[in-house]
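Look over both lines:
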Amino acid sequence: MNRTIRTVDDVLALLDGLFPPAGPFWDRFYADRSAERPFFAPKPDENLVSCLERGLLPPAPGRALDLGCGAGRNAIHLASLGFEVDAVDLSPTALAWAEERAREAGVAGAGLRFHRASIFEAELPHTRYDLVYDSGCLHHLPPHRRVGYLALLDRVLAPGGHFAVTAFAAGQMGSERPDEELYRLGTLEGGLAYSPDELRSLFREFTPLEIRPMAAQGPESELFGLPFLLTALFQRAVSF
């Protein structure tokens, strides 16, 4: 059959097929734990820690959703502070590592749950979260999936809740090609770069509280920080 598109989901699946599948790539990526990748270290993002310490984010207790959690470094940090955390990732290899780390950190249990799923399909135990955190998920999504990403935020972010994102910074790292060209090429070129203005425009329904480069951290630091990443913190209106 050549005429198979009947629904929006069919269109999304067709567009997904123009790019290499993400799941197998991330399984291979996390399979070699000895690889020298900075974010393999069990360190939380410096911007997450900074926002909490400066009071830009409310302290625990609260509900947090970690999108594309990888090996769990930010989810584990939030759980250690007393947040109830749901963390989602496509890769069972990454999640197996995350669960090991959670046990080692003493935070495994009812307050920290890992979900193997696409962020668009995860069955979450709560309908609303006080914090939605994304460290490196958005910039690996093809352009058409931003529609579902915004719909996800609209569905799960509580009134007055906060959304924080870390992505490749334009002019530093990542592809800056126009969306249309990415489909012609059939590649995201390792990830998409965003400028501060592009993040403000994409998340214009929310109030920007801070947009800045991630502060570089040395190997001796207890925090993760690479200056080619852009960090942003937004807040949803109390009523909508």
Q: What stands out?
A: The chain is about 30% helix and 20% strand.
